[in-house]
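hi! just following up on the protien thing from before. the input was this:
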Amino acid sequence: MRRQSAVVGIGQTKYKRARDDLSLEGLVREAAHRAVEDAGITLADVDAFVIGKAPDALEGVMMPELSLADALGAIGKPIHRVHTAGSVGAATAISGSIMIESGRYDRVLVLCYEKQSEGNATWALSGGRSGGQGAGGTFAPWIRSYIQRSGAPEHIGWKVAVKDRRHALRNPNAHLRIDDISIEKVKESPMLWDPLHFLESCPSSDGAAAIVLGNEEVATKGPNPPAWVVAHAKRSELSSFPGRDTVKPQAGIDCARALFEEAGITRPLEQIDCAELYVPFSWYEPMWLEGHEITPGGDGWKLTDSGATELGGSFPINPSGGVLSSNPIGASGLIRCLEAANQVRGTAGDYQVDGARVALGHAYGGAAQYFAMWIVSSERQPTF
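and the predicted 3d structure came back as:
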C-alpha cells in the first residue's frame, strides 16, 4: 500500500514593483521560506525539491534549477524539474505527491514561479509563423465553438470575469485587483480576440508559489491542519490530429474520470465543496465544468449563470480570484492546487468557503492538451 501525502505548508510571493531588487532566485526563495515556516520546519529539513515553470524562454534563463539549488540550500539533495506548459504547476504538485507516496522521502518542497517582467511571454507563447497569435488567439475560436454548440448567451464570459475579480479583492495574494469591476466595464473593454474582451483575459504577472508535502507522520505532527491528497491524475494528448475535439478534449475527460474514480467521487457537484479551475479566459469556467464532466454537456454555462459558482454559492469556483487575477504562468497551476488546499485547511481567510471539506485543484496547458488535477480533503480518507 502506497504512502499518503498531505500539504503541510503553503507560501506565495508576488513581485512588488517597489522592490526592484528582488531577483528571480529571491522571488522563489521567499515563497519557499513562507512554506517551510507554515510547515514548522526549515529548508534544511527538506529531503527533496521539485521545481516547475513554463518554458525557460519566458525569462531567457536556461536550467534555472542550477542557481535555485544554491538559493534554496538544496546542494547535494535531489532536485526534479517539471515542465508541461501551463499545467506545469499542478503537474509539479502531483510529482511531489508521488515522491512522498514512494516512501523514499518524508518532506518534499514543491516550487513554481514565473518572472515575466524579465522575459517576453508574448513572444514565447506565439505560434511562430502563425503571426504571433498567442494563447488567446488559439483559444478564442474554440470558445466561439463552445458558445455555438451550447447556446450560451454572451454575458456568461462577462459574468465570470466580474465574479473572479470580485473574489480577488478578498485575497491579499492576488496580483490584479480591480475595485470598480462590473459587467458594463468588462463589456466595454477592448476586444482582443473575438469573443474575448480585455477584461475577460488573464494578466501576465510575476510570482512564486510553494508547498511542503509530507507523509502521514509529518502531517499529523505539523503545527497547522494538513490537506490530505486523496487523488491525483495527469493526462495528455497530441495538440493536433484529425477529429480532435478542441472544445472538449478527450484527455480532459480521461483525466477527470481517473481522478474521480480514484477519489470515489460519483457526483462531483454534490461531493466536491469548491474548485480552483484553471480559467485564463473567462469562458473556460463553463467549458471545463462540461469538459471534466462536473456538469452534463450544455449545463456548464447554466451553473455559472445561476450564481452557484460564486463565493457563497453551492459550488464556488476560484474563490481566490483564479488565473484571471494572478497568472505567473509556471506557478498558476500550483496556485490552483495550493488554494484548494487552503480551503480544506480552513486557512483561506476572507475568501474561505464555509465548511469546505473536499476541494478540486486543476490546471491545463499547451493547446488544451495537458491536464493535471488533484482532490484534497480535510480528512485522510473522506467518505462520500
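The first strand starts at residue 6 and ends at 14.
DSSP finds 13 helices and eleven strands in the chain.
cheers
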